[in-house]
Amino acid sequence: MYLLGYDIGSSSVKASLVEAATGTCVGSTFYPKSEAPITAVRAGWAEQDPESWWKYLKLATADIMAASHVAAADIKAIGISYQMHGLVCVDKQQQVVRPSIIWCDSRAVPYGEKAFRQLGEERCLQHLLNSPGNFTAMKLAWVKENEPETYRRIDKIMLPGDYIAMRLSGDICTTVSGLSEGIMWDFKENRLAQFMLDFYGIDSSLIADVKPTFAVQGTVSRAAAAELGLCEGTPITYRAGDQPNNALSLNVFNPGEIASTAGTSGVVYGVNGTVDYDPKSRVNTFAHVNHTAENPRTGVLLCINGTGILNSWIKRNFVAQGTSYEQVNEMAALAPVGCDGISILPFGNGAERVLENKEVGCSIHGINFNNHNVNNVLRAAQEGIVFSFKYGIEVMEQMGMTVKKIHAGRANMFLSPIFRNTLAGVTGADIELFDTDGSVGAAKGAGLGAGIYSSTAEAFASLERLAVIHPDDAQADAYADAYARWKSLLEKEIK
Question: Tens of pLDDT along 72-122?
């Protein structure tokens, strides 16, 4: 018995096949092999053709079925993870009426700002847990105002994962978690945020039916089965945005548990047991995969734009060509904690929400030409990234979260001992590294939704913990001093 998971990203579509009984991934692949194109007709715009996601999914499915030699009839459930906040619009024939406006498109920012002002900041935060921002509902408002002919053709709007589920099954539905990430869920009333739709004059009939995150949300249609080589009737039993799904993949379900990633940008995603928000909207709050009104589980999401991109920029510009990241880490390790006084603010990849959308930029402070060398700068870059995580975690703690353990995949910045040790040292949390990814998590989520697993404990019993990094008490004061100096510099910049 097998479970099939898809992860619909903006750079690729990944598929993984998991043996349900053992939790072992028996096959995994992704398409395209080079990064998927993003169309930017104007500065700040970002669009993709949803049909391309389906094309990549078909290629990945064909590869994984051929390589694994698993019979289609042995696949008992399908799960979907997807890039968050995108807008897909289809007509009554389920045909896409315009390219998807994806997560990194910023054209709708003024629409969110207008709603925040006119609806009232307190009302938005109490009901939506976020400022309206640049999310899916605002992208639809932009289409309504700027492309009225296109808007009139829309029968339903969807998130990217909803679209893939529609292509698989012919059924259009969404989840509470999905609506919350689109800023269309009213947490206070536990229903669709009608007041937000009314503000923009959007008919609620455009919103898909709501299904539980873990449940049969449709079954593979005859047409999709023929295209993909799957069995008609295979149930689709789970879907979630990439960050909630990453948390699921790392077995993060309960209050105080944290999932983190640190690729080009970095994310810290913590689960809260209350329906709460940050008054300054420095972090986003969405419904987690296991959220219910009776047993609230909200995901508090901190995003730092300048994470791995700073590390790669430093590597390109400060060390010899051909130097590996492992060698960079070895050089950085020659510098002490705190880098003998150097601090780097890592915010050179655009405005940061955690800084109330200020564009601080990246800056290096404290260099002494007589005492410092490249090793200090390399370490200061990694410390600066970690300190930005710590700064955001403090916002989460102000919301009542207690951070004692951070789960992460062993990838990207978490491959660096300096990064891991600094994060443990400055937060006081244990860092647990696991061998998993989004598509494997989606497959296990499908097992939960199909009832193949009776609990999350059963679903993730096989999750392989690769390492645990404990805080080094002997270095605690050094980390605290370095962070205090960094934070002082940042607060001067954002005054």
Answer: 999 999 999 999 999 999 999 999 999 999 998 999 999 999 999 999 999
Residue 60's nearest CA partner among 8, 18, 20, 1 is 8
Lowest mean pLDDT among 145-149, 289-293, 303-307, 389-393: 303-307
Q: Are 48 and 68 in contact (CB under 8 A)?
A: no
Beta bridge pairs of residue 3: 18, 77
| Omega prior to 336 cis, within 30 of 0 | no
pTM: 0.93
Cα dihedral: 309, 313, 316, 319 (round 10)? -120
pLDDT band of residue 264 (cuts 50, 70, 90) is confident
Based on C-alpha coordinates, what's the Rg of the chain?
A: 22
Mean model confidence pLDDT for the chain: 96
Average pLDDT over residues 255-280: 93
> What confidence tier does 375 reach under pLDDT thresholds 50, 70, 90?
very high
What 3-state DSSP class applies to 191? strand
How far is residue 332's CA from residue 379's CA, in Å, rounded to a whole number?
5
Using alpha carbons only, what angle is made at residue 100 by residues 37 and 102, rounded to the nearest 5 degrees?
70
491 vs 486: CA distance, rounded Å: 9
Distance CA(482)–CA(439), nearest Å, equals 38
pLDDT greater than 90 at residue 252: yes
Confidence of residue 188 (pLDDT cuts 50, 70, 90): very high
- pLDDT grade, residue 265 (50/70/90)? confident
- Spatial separation of the C-alpha atoms in residues 24 and 2, rounded to whole Å: 10
Quick one: DSSP state of residue 348? -
Strands 191-192 and 298-304: unpaired
Q: Which tokens is 409 given?
A: 């995949």
User: Using the 8-state DSSP alphabet, how is residue 81 labeled?
Assistant: E
What is the CA 451 to chain-centroid distance, rounded? 26
The strand pairing partners of 347, in sequence order, are 361
Alpha helices in 3-74 (DSSP H): 50-68
**Cβ(380)–Cβ(373) under 8 Å?**
no
Residue matched to tokens 């994984």: 64
245: Cα within 13 Å, side-chain hemisphere: 32
CA–CA separation, 405 vs 397, rounded Å?
Answer: 13
Which residue type sits at 27? Answer: G
Which residues are bridge partners to 14 per DSSP?
7, 30
Number of Cβ atoms within 10 Å of the Cβ of 70:
18
Q: How far is Cα 322 from Cα 329, in angstroms, rounded to an integer?
A: 14
Residue 286 contacts residue 301 (beta carbons within 8 Å):
yes
